[in-house]
Design brief:
By secondary structure, the protein is an all-beta fold. It has two helices and 20 strands. It has two domains: 127 residues, Immunoglobulin-like (Sandwich), CATH 2.60.40; 122 residues, 5 Propeller (Tachylectin-2, Chain A).
């Protein structure tokens, strides 16, 4: 398991998508061009709670650290946040960068996500500020870089441009691998990760491979990705009602109408289990099949 840098988004079955544009990015130097665009998206919502994703696109000079502030308009509160840190005083929220995502080049983006609570309504915040500068969605015309021109301040729409001719990925070393124990001494591989943020930690479920026991499922949890390799593995064949036998390729999601978490996975027939707390692997229900028998069209076309 390797960590390739990208933005995580928790997409629930019942999704409410709301986008608010607009922002100015404050650069480190008073003489630098400043400008950014902020996109706030409600990724899912349920009675009393919601998830959100916030993306900041830097339109001005490169910055080495950032601080985003806004005020909620209906008493919402943040309960957990990832890819940054936050403080909240009443309606006022401040989010600062994590140790690894403070640098944003010109044309680059930074993003973070959070879960929050709401009561009577959940409107999108109407105003943002970056490093103390009110967000407008264009480059500040009062500042300009000494060595290169800034994007035109006369347009009210985001700048456009061609795609880069080449792309570059960055990857860490291996973050997590198989962890044999006394009951699973010959586990040789782990794959098919499904990941959600819950109880202020990453909850990971995956498939394990064993020459003697075949395919099964495992859970581990940690607060931040550098801790993944040291996390304790809980095998679902011995510690949960899911039990032994072929189980593979898990995928978990939250279903708001029932206030339940679902895990779907491969068995002889497509199967699912439910839980009220995905951070507790022992809470999953016994397997239930989606259908009583294999459809004839599947049987007739195997192989």
């Amino acid at each position: 398991m390797r960590h390739i840098r990208f933005s995580y988004r928790w997409a629930a079955v019942v999704t409410v998508a709301t986008v608010a544009g607009a922002g100015v990015f404050t650069a480190v130097s008073a003489q630098a061009a400043t400008g950014c665009r902020v996109t706030y998206t409600v990724t899912n919502q349920w009675p009393g709670g919601f998830g959100a994703d916030v993306q900041v696109a830097n339109l001005g000079d490169p910055v080495t650290s950032w601080r985003l502030t806004w005020s909620f308009g209906a008493g919402q509160t943040i309960t957990q946040l990832w890819n940054g840190s936050f403080t909240q005083s009443g309606a006022n929220v401040t989010v600062t960068n994590a140790s690894w995502n403070g640098n944003i080049p010109t044309g680059g983006t930074a993003s973070f996500g959070f879960n929050g609570s709401w009561t009577s309504a959940n409107p999108v915040p109407t105003s943002f500020a970056l490093n103390g500068t009110t967000c407008t969605g264009s480059v500040d015309p009062t500042t300009s870089p000494s060595s290169s021109p800034s994007p035109s301040p006369s347009t009210s729409t985001p700048p456009t441009g061609s795609l880069p001719s080449s792309l570059r990925w960055s990857s860490s070393g291996v973050l997590a691998g198989p962890k044999p124990d006394a009951a699973h001494s010959d586990v040789v591989a782990i794959k098919d990760y499904t990941v959600v943020r819950h109880n202020n930690a990453w909850q990971v479920y995956a498939t394990t491979a064993s020459p003697s026991q075949g395919w099964n499922l495992v859970h581990f949890s940690f607060s931040d990705w550098p801790q993944a390799a040291g996390a304790t593995h809980t095998y679902l064949d011995t510690a949960t009602p899911i039990g032994r036998g072929y189980r593979a390729a898990p995928h978990i999601f939250y279903f708001a109408p029932q206030n339940l978490w679902y895990m779907v996975y491969q068995t002889g027939l497509p199967t699912y289990s439910t839980s009220t707390d995905p951070s507790n692997p022992r809470s999953w229900s016994t397997p239930r099949n989606f259908m009583n028998s294999e459809p004839a069209i599947v049987t007739q076309n195997k192989g």
